[in-house]
Each structure stands twice: as C-alpha cells, then as structure tokens.
C-alpha cells in the first residue's frame, strides 16, 4: 500500500527538478550568455553607445585589424602575462612551501600575507599611486632619489610597477593554493628520501616540485587567463599610460568603447579577448591541467 | 650487525653516519632561504599597509616634513572627518545593498540549481545545464561589459543599483553551482531515500536535508561572492553615473581624482573603505581564506 501511495509524489518530483534549476538558468542566460552572444553580434555593427545601432558588416573588424594599436595591445597583454607569471610562480611556490611548514610563527606571518586578498584592486592601486608619488610619496619622504622617481610617468618603470603591484595582490592567493598542494604530498616520500640521505634542497627538487605538477598547472592557468582581465588595477594606476605603454586589451576595449564611443571596434576587441582566453585555457589544459575550467577566478 | 638487519629502521638510519651531517646542513641552509623569503615577503606586504595606515593620521600641511615611517606624534582624525563628510556613509550603504542584494539571491538560486543537478543527474536537460554553467566559468566579465551596458539601458536600469546587482548574480552562479553541487553530492544517498520514504517532496528535502548538511559550503560560497562583488569596480564604473549611486571602490577612485594631492586624506579613504573587510578578516580569517580557494580545494 505504502509503495503505491509513494509513487505519485515521486513522479511529481521528477518534474519538479527542472523547475528548480530555472531561476539560475534564466539569470545566467540573460546576463552572461546573452551578453556573450551579443558581443559577437555588436562587433558587426556601428554604435556610439547612445544612439541607434547600425549593422555595418565587417567595418569594425577591418578598422581594428588594420589599427597598429591592436598588435601593440596584444604585445603589452602578452608581456604582462609572461612577466607576471615568471615573477609570481617562483615567489608563490617558495612562500607556499614556507607556509606549509609546521612552525607557529609561519602561521602568524600568514595572517599578514593574506591581507592583500581582502582589498579591492581599486584600493590597492590608489594606495600605491599615493605611495609612488614622486613628490609626496614614500620615496620622497625618505629622501632617497632612487625611490622618488616618476614611477608611473616613464613607460618601463610603469610596466614594472604594474608587475610589482599585481604580484603584491595575487602572490598570496597562489601561495595559498601551493600551501594546500604541499600539504597533500605524502609524508612517507620525504621520510624515504631522508633515509636515502637526500638533503632538503634535493628533496625540494625531486619530491616537492614534481608532486606539485598539477598545482602548478592550476595556478598557472589562473594566472595566465586571469591576467587577461587585469582592468581595475591598470585603469586606476596608469589608465594605460604613459602614452599607451600599459594599454592591455581589456583597457583598449574600455577606452575605445566608453571613452571614444566606438562600441563596434570595442566589441571586436572583446571578441578577441574571449578567443585568446579560450585558446590559452585549452592550451594549458593540454599540458595536463585538471580544472582549467575555474580559470577566470582571478580576474573577477 | 647493521648490514645483517637491513629491514630495521635504526641500523639504516645510523648506517650512513658520514652522510648525516651532509644531509642536515643543506636542510638548515634551506630553512634560512625559506625563512629569509618569508620575512622578506612580510616586509613587502606590511610596509605599504603600515605606511598607508600611519600616513592617514598625519596632517596634510606637515606630513612630508616628518619621517614617513614614523607615526605622527600628533595624530589627527581630520582626514577621516573629511572622508566621512564626502558622503562615504552613503557609498558604504550602496555597497551593502549591492552585495547583499546580489549574494543572497545568487546563492539561493545556485543552491536550488545545484540540488536539481545532483538529484536529477539522469535527466539530459539537467546535465546540459550543468555543462553550460561549467563553460560559463570561462566567460570573462570584462568581455561582456558592452552588451551588458546595452541590456541595462534597454531595461531602463542605467544609473540604478539594480543594474549592478543583476549581472553580479549571473556571474556568481557558475562557480557557486559547481562548489555547492560538489558538496550536495557528498550527502549520503540513504538520507535522501529515507526522506522520500517519509513522503517528503523535493522542495522539503532541499530545505530540510540538503541545506543544513551543506551549510559550511553555503557560507564559503557566500563569502567568496560577497568579497568579489564588494570589491567590484568595472560594473559601477560603466553602469552608474550619478554620485548617489556610487559604491565604495568607485567612490574611492573619484575621491582620489578630486583630492589626489592630499595624500593623507586619500589614504584615510583607502583605510576607511577597507576597514569593514579587514574587521571580517580579523574574526573569520579561516572562513574567508577557505572561501577564496573553494573552487580548487575539491
């Protein structure tokens, strides 16, 4: 009897589940998928951001692809990506290994390390802008010429500052990932190595690093794909300047769209941004990454 | 003796007696290296924070006569007064409205979706939705900002806090569903079965069984989303215009543009706007940090 009475609700339940997913699905379709499709569509139009939208075929694409600004923006984006990866990865591994140690003082230092993770890019950029001010900043106050340069006014220096501030903001996050990775390495491996007489350095290179392979790929994917979306930080620090020295793709898109009112070409840049991101995520996945899917986290 | 008992630990350990100091010396050396890197990084992180904090209590007129790394002997709250008088309470409330208004619905709908996906895994439709959310993780917000701007204009929501809330919900959904579904999957099947035998509907099971059992995951996901949205800059920059609709990061940027030369005041604004998050950090550090790596730890 009871089996018979429990059947109708079960049938009813089957139909309920798809409805439970609807609110999330509709929100996601409306404000993420539709915009993604929309940006492809808008790249074939001309629009000033206020008036009517005109379909103009490949005009915007031709304009952008023949503009020397595009290869420059791609190059700067690539440089930021490569250099910030090369700086952040060794630092994050070193600090991650350091934090995975058992000593109490390391955990105490960890409390300070992770503070930058809580702050907004805007706040960090503004604090650094004040700190690096050649007349009123920290360097000027200490009266050290080397430190009181026009940090954000010279192309090479401005690029270096961006790499430094990016690292300052994101190394904590990646060392957190590495700390977790290190803690998952079986202790027995180290014990065996110790019995074989391998020193700490040897252990690091022949156990820790190889065991961290997947962690390195995950962290690198997040760094590389995330670096495509550095916007807030660069926008506040340099606005792409001096000149266009730090004008990365995301900034190029914003400036063309919302400052020069050329939404068509800006959409072309956005499409390129999406394609480059996908390409990089796929490439890194080929290298053996497990969850390349979570790749946009750093940029959000 | 030692060679006859190779399986025993002790003889093995003491056997390479000559190598023992060799192996322990590099260990100590690396600890110096690791420790050195650790303390160096502490300085790198702490000096800008410390400098920003102490400078925010100095007077604009004489702060650069003093040693920048020594706290003012005559601290002042004038900078903070100036910041508060620049309507920062309103911006703070705007940030609270946007964050709460986005995180609560986002986590709610994500939880329902995650539950449906786990429970209805046999249905092709739900697996397809799951695949869509997974792909959604790879959509960068920046690249979709122009169509979002267009949609918001068409909805007559430009310069309205709701314009910030709606896209924030959408972009919070993929990761939230992924993490929550992982946790719901861990709930033992027998518990669901016993609920069903008792005649409970999916709706009841969702709230009475799944929600309480996955509460830590819900908290974690909420924290991650809240931090992301609280610190968001691009959406307010593009989708709002009037000062009344500013959220904290945008207000900070505007304040800096207006009073850039007044370094202590700008830094007071930075300190004040980061204070709420830092207070949370002081109390719930573990939760916050685990929230940040929620997507990878599992």
From TrEMBL, chain A:
Any Pfam family hit: BPD_transp_1
SUPFAM superfamilies, per database record: MetI-like
GO cellular component: plasma membrane
InterPro entries reported for this sequence: ABC_transporter_permease, MetI-like, MetI-like_sf
Keyword set, alphabetical order: Cell membrane, Membrane, Transmembrane, Transmembrane helix, Transport
Gene3D superfamilies: MetI-like
Annotated compartments: Cell membrane
Any single biological process term in GO: transmembrane transport
Topology of this chain in the membrane: Multi-pass membrane protein
Stated name of the protein: Binding protein dependent transport protein
UniProtKB/TrEMBL annotation, chain B:
Protein's organism: Streptomyces griseoaurantiacus M045
PROSITE patterns: ABC_TM1
UniProt-listed SUPFAM superfamilies: MetI-like
Cellular localisation: Cell membrane
Topology in membrane: Multi-pass membrane protein
Keywords in alphabetical order: Cell membrane, Membrane, Transmembrane, Transmembrane helix, Transport
GO biological process, one term: transmembrane transport
Domain of life of the source: Bacteria
Protein name: Sugar ABC-transporter integral membrane protein
Matching InterPro entries: MetI-like (IPR000515), MetI-like_sf (IPR035906)
Residues spanning the membrane: 30-51, 91-118, 130-152, 164-184, 217-239, 259-283
ABC transmembrane type-1 domain segment(s): 92-284
Skewed-composition ranges (Basic and acidic residues): 7-20
Gene Ontology CC entries for this record: plasma membrane
Pfam families from the UniProt entry: BPD_transp_1
Region (Disordered): 1-23
Family that this chain belongs to: Belongs to the binding-protein-dependent transport system permease family.
